[in-house]
Amino acid sequence: SGENSPLGQRSTLEDDQSSTFRYLYVSGTAKAKSFKLTIQVYDHPCLPNGFVSGDAAQAQIAGQADADLPEPCATFDSQPITIISKPSKKTAKARNVSSCILAGSLVSLFNRINSQTVRTKYMSAQDGELCAKGSTWSAFTISIVANGPTSPSPARNGAAKSHHRQPVQPTAAPITYGAEIILTETATGLQSDRLTVCKVENGRIIEGAIGPICQMQKVALQSTRRSADDRPLYLGAGGDDHQGGRFMDHTTATNTVLRYEPTTKTEYYRPGSDDFLCWTIVGISKFEYPVELP
Fold first, then answer.
1. Which residue from 1, 37, 122, 287 has the highest number of Cβ atoms inside 10 Å of its Cβ?
2. Ranges for the Beta-trefoil DNA-binding domain (predicted)?
3. Which residues contact residue 57 at a Cβ distance below 8 angstroms, ignoring those fewer than 6 apart?
4. Could you say which architecture CATH assigns to the domain 97-283?
């Protein structure tokens, strides 16, 4: 909410005790670097679901006075939430920590085909498997097994990586490209395999990239295993059909089980053909409050 022009949404608590507010508008006119959220909880529906803003919000609430609008059972105010934007390549440096993805932090990842908002799916978990959903998303804790290089290193001699390393203790250090990570879904505790974070640039997966991973950047998640023909495998939302699934209609309500697949890096490559392997990574702000309701 803003100081001069409050924005509001209303939503009903679902059977699973969750509620979703699908839209958030943050004005850039004041050049604010953060905003706050206020959540009011009522013990029964008192206003229709929807979006209200500015004077209309105040007027509608005032107009409900005669309808015995109850006092909220509880009100929660969040801590300041940082407003982020996709950083330029020149500013995506370790010193700009506010835009970096940090070890031990919460993140959300989404997959978008051909840059189309309607073909967006969000990484989640269901029935003990990682999946991509079109309507809901999950928060993941990102833990480092081994961080990537921060500067170019000599070519490796082909020695196999150790498969017995344990996640290091979470720190505030930025995660870098080439890092081996584990994603843990916070609601179920489901963990991913060990994954190597790779850079994506102009729709292509870039091997050997270095530097910190920043908010709103696209990444690919490479498996420690390889295909039968020794190609790298990446965690993707391509669906069951290997060819048609890559360009499937993401507007469907079905969940897509995530699978490891190779890139389409061939002489016949076409733009967007690897979109199903690319994930945009975003940091999450989480707030928890204990409350006793009547």
1. 122
2. 99-264
3. 6, 7, 8
4. Trefoil (2.80)
